[in-house]
User: Fold Glycoside hydrolase family 5 protein from Rhodocollybia butyracea.
Amino acid sequence: MIPSSSRIFTSILYAASLVVADNPISPGFAYGTEKVRGVNLGGWLVLEPWITPSIFDNTSNIDIVDEFTFGQLQNHSTALPVLQNHWDTWITESDFQAIAAAGLNHVRLPIGFWAFDVSGGEPYIQGQLPYLQNAITWAENTGLKLIIDLHGAPGSQNGYDNSGQRLPFPTWQQNQTDIQRTDAIIKTIANMVKDKTNVVPIIAPLNEPAGYDGQQMLDVVKQYWYDSYGNIRYPYNSSQESNTVVMLHDAFQPLSYWNNFQTAPGWQGVAMDTHIYQMFSQELVAQTNAQHIQTACAYQTSLAFDLWLIVGEWTPAQTDCAKYLNGRGNGARYDGTLANSTFVGSCTGLTGSASTFSSNFKTFLRQYWEAQVIAFEKGGSGWIQWTWKAENADEWTYSAGLANGWIPQDPTDLKYPNICD
Ligand SMILES: *[C@@H]1O[C@H](CO)[C@@H](O)[C@H](O)[C@H]1NC(C)=O
Ligand SMILES: *[C@@H]1O[C@H](CO)[C@@H](O)[C@H](O)[C@H]1NC(C)=O
Ligand SMILES: *[C@@H]1O[C@H](CO)[C@@H](O)[C@H](O)[C@H]1NC(C)=O
Ligand SMILES: *[C@@H]1O[C@H](CO)[C@@H](O)[C@H](O)[C@H]1NC(C)=O
Ligand SMILES: *[C@@H]1O[C@H](CO)[C@@H](O)[C@H](O)[C@H]1NC(C)=O
Assistant:
């Protein structure tokens, strides 16, 4: 399944990294000392139906459920200008300025494999790369650190629409050609930013591989993490290291599963990303608001880990009510409109425009936001909220939180500093 050549490559690089065991890297941000405080630029270079439902609704074809089908089921000449307009307007340099002004130090930018390679005949529409270059320039101009996050791999690594292709079961892990194409993209990205560590300190080689899908997926992911270490940390040659940090994802496994994985001194510059959401199961979405806060506070003690641990996605939303959050055409667990879910409460007033939110709900959003910030900073190396903007799901967005008062203008200016005591 795994070609021996890549195993050998990995062990050569492993040996090389052992030689420099006492030579920690200088990534341009004091990870582990300073707290990462950031926001994701979701729904920009990777479309997500729930972030921009209008782009999907405007197609009036209910089979267009992700960026793959957006390209597949429309003429190129219809789809391309819609995407170009979106890329030009959804995130601009003024967003970077607002993010920096809000006291944040990182942005995480999801991008799909198809920006680099559609040689498998995938129907995606290309054109994202100049916007990635713009983002790097804007990060440099505003002093923000940019994390490049490969959010979709060929064949899909999780089957979520946010991987580009919504599938009942992912196929990336079953296809050696697709895995090698992904390795090549990571090499391209690593080479692009290897001398810009001060602006792009981190590459995240794959978002949310579905480790719960079984041992084969986990075996492929582990090998892919070894190969990614070589590709990101040695972009020059096998004896010259970069200062770029590799951010792994926990593949939805408990952190203990990854104990001793790529740890110092043999490995340098590795961070672990974990995503914390409290709404994607019936049990979680049925918690009371007080229980959500209690669950958040418990992370103060459960994020201790032997790598830099960054909560790379989380949200102050406590329900899955946002339209299309579970996929175009699917309802929510919270109000029982998703298949096999049980009604907890009405979604009215819990999603959409902040102008419809009660002052009690806004107070809860502030408390829950602060509880998570406290826990993720105490327990880990920091946090990156999902997400900066959404068309009509203010409960999720950092920008709406700033505008409506449930997120402070300075993320250290807490109103409920003792909420987890
Ligand atoms: C909506 O779709 C039409 C084609 O059906 C296209 O011309 C138009 O640009 C689209 N508008 C948006 C905002 O996506
Ligand atoms: C593409 O455009 C042609 C000509 O306008 C039209 O006949 C065809 O139905 C379109 N195909 C799709 C998938 O929209
Ligand atoms: C593997 O993916 C490639 C595209 O990268 C495709 O051409 C090929 O058919 C796939 N193989 C299988 C067995 O699905
Ligand atoms: C590796 O790359 C570095 C940086 O470009 C260079 O200084 C060094 O000579 C190279 N080493 C080898 C063995 O090619
Ligand atoms: C709902 O539950 C039934 C019975 O357990 C199962 O067959 C079906 O696949 C489930 N549907 C979804 C969408 O999860």
Summary: Residues 33 and 381 are 8 Å apart (CA to CA). Residues 339-340 surround 2-acetamido-2-deoxy-beta-D-glucopyranose (ligand 5) (CB under 6 Å).
